[in-house]
Amino acid sequence: MKKFVYLFSEGDASMRELLGGKGANLAEMTKLGLPVPQGFTISTEACTQYYDDGRKINDDIMNEIMTFVAKMEEINGKKFGDLKNPLLVSVRSGARASMPGMMDTILNLGLNDEVVAAMIAGNPDPKFERFVYDSYRRFIQMFSDVVMEVGKKYFEQLIDKMKEEKGVKFDIELTAADLKELATQFKAEYKKQLGEDFPSDPVAQLKLAIEAVFRSWDNPRANVYRRDNDIPYSWGTAVNVMPMVFGNLNNESGTGVAFTRDPATGENKLMGEFLINAQGEDVVAGVRTPMPIAQMEKEFPEAYAEFIKVCETLENHYHDMQDMEFTVENKKLYMLQCRNGKRTAPAALKIACDLVDEGHKTPEEAVAMIDPRNLDTLLHPQFDAAALKAAKPLGKGLGASPGAACGKCVFTAEDAEAWAARGEKVVLVRLETSPEDITGMKSSQGILTVRGGMTSHAAVVARGMGTCCVSGCGDIVMDEENKKFTLAGVTFTEGSEISIDGTTGNIYAGLIPTVDAQIAGEFGRVMAWADQFRNLKVRTNADTPHDAKKARELGAEGIGLCRTEHMFFDPDRIAAFREMICSDTEEEREVALDKILPYQQSDFKALYEALEGCPVTIRFLDPPLHEFVPTEEADIEKLAKAKNKTVEEVKAICASLHEFNPMMGHRGCRLTVTYPSIAKMQTKAVIRAAIEVKKAHPDWLNEPEIMIPLVCELKELKYVKQTVVETADAEIAAAGVELKYHVGTMIEIPRACLTADEIAKEAAFFCFGTNDLTQMTFGFSRDDAGKFLGAYYDTKILENDPFAKLDQNGVGKLMKMAIDLGKPVNADLHVGICGEHGGDPSSVEFCHNIGLDYVSCSPFRVPIARLAAAQAAIKNPRK
What we know:
The chain has 34 helices and 33 strands. It is an alpha/beta fold and 879 residues long. The strands form 7 sheets. An 8-stranded mixed beta sheet has the order 14-24-23-16-17-18-19-15. It is elongated, with a radius of gyration of 32 Å.
């Protein structure tokens, strides 16, 4: 029979796919002889089975779980539900990939009224009685929230009411009698919400809790996190069941979270937080703001000394920065989890370089361990130094995730989403964040919380997303109900402007100006390694010299896509272009276009100069003409006057250009077939600019690449290419110079992929326009798909947005087919990609694997593509 359950002593770190990250690491720590409470892991295959069986745990798996419960009882010398020596357990999720705060945990499972009474009877110490009731009320609260989906808020309101009645500030000040009363109130609330009694049978509690963890794999926040982090739904999660150790037993006990290096800066020093007389959820949920780990040395010197040894063992074993959860019970240390820690981009680069210098990693391994998407944040703006100096901070929290954020205050995740959708920049202000807030956190420039430390949910998730976060600003007086707070005598309401600094933790009223980030040091070192290992060239999509310069600074090796239409919207040029549209003859059109020619020429010249001889690919006009026609009355009158037409005639021309499906309409190379003068003008501009630059810089290799968009038939490309070549050759001959240029095509229609062997005879290069190719392959309109894709994610028909992450199965097959058909026909054919996918790491890896020559992406994604290309080459070297 298939095995679904494993003792910690039966696994190791290599079994991650089966045991999940947490289970595999608990097994590995057990193997290393570290103090881990001994339990078992229910495998990810059991999760898949649970979904296959219609969201039920089948009898065979449940029986196997109960066999392992018996083994766990034997190892620990305690029994489930026993009144003399009860075993209490925690039930935690653990997927293959770390998903902090996305799935559910239940602590203190196995308690009921009888077990509670028996435990207290066996230990007369009043402090022990308080501990038992504290554990019981926590269990009822977590079980109700996580397993039965009764909202946390009902219980939090009861706790707050009790604290108010007793005149205390912290949960820890409530007495045993208060907590006993709370447990009774909690059970009554449970019955009120669900219409049934709180389950008292520990086995029933366990089964419900395991089902809840499996179910949480499919909760909305986990689904959003998975989509953002490329984690397949099919992986499933494992469940870890382990005996409880109690950090809330007494003042000789406590709980903590620590990192072997600083996850915000990468500095090689232990960083973490510790709470005396608390359970792990208190540190992570940020209910009480904890003390730094160094203070643990004063409180529990023996446990601290052992913990330092454990940190060393783990880091030397995994050769990476570790994120660990631990508990001290009666001064004895227990390890509850370890994993490679989430870190900010600057920390990731520093740690990678340090690990190479310390002999833990080779440069290849260092390059392979950095998440390319993380680099995005390095390039994010920082506050302007002079403005920052002049500003006075109102208060200070913990700088939990670096960066600069300014915007308007909002108080709920829903408001953050709604305001951001209207184009407002917002800062999400919360007492503490919970995993439900993830979509609101994504929509915000920054996150500010009143409670919680450097390891709270807000801090960990913000660091992962690269969003600025300041946590644990206890000076804030918060009024969430009325959406306002006060800090240092200043009241902020919804829409008030605020600035927060995620590096220092400072909070300012008003908006402080930001500047582009400076990159140096470790960034340059890691990128130099990446450039050594990669095969793919990385170009950029840029239409202006400013973007081109920025991309060059970030390592771009050319322009893979210059969209010429963006240059037409300048007020001086649009007027001439509209005259061209309203012309009746080809001659009239040429007169109008001649007005635009000098502008286009100077645009291209500036781009060539910014690129200093690196390749520049210029795409000829692509959008349908109706995008350029005037809509305002005044503009229509101006155009009518210029063309000696009536306003009605101009309106009629504009109306005639309207199309039912413009994305598949009169655009791209189809414009050149009907109006050759557009291509002639653009060719003259490209060639004249290149001749000018060649004269000024004879040492540069400047060979313009002209890209014809939307080709789907060889004869079509031949026709347009003929116009281009005749015009270009005439210009070169007239100037009496030698100049090489290349004419290629954008591959963005499925038919072009299917007939690539024919098209390759006439094309110097192929460039995949994967935005349009995705649109045409799926038959999804890019502008409308957002309306129904949500339902496709919910029903698991699609797991990712195909416009953000290349569909390797369909669109990818077409790309591979185009290369396999085109290259044998034309040995010199070079192939690239210039859709948005060019900067997505998993898509870059695919492009490496199918043999592309380059990827092209927006300027700020260039470093991401360089790193992703290196990782692809390390993982799958080209023959």
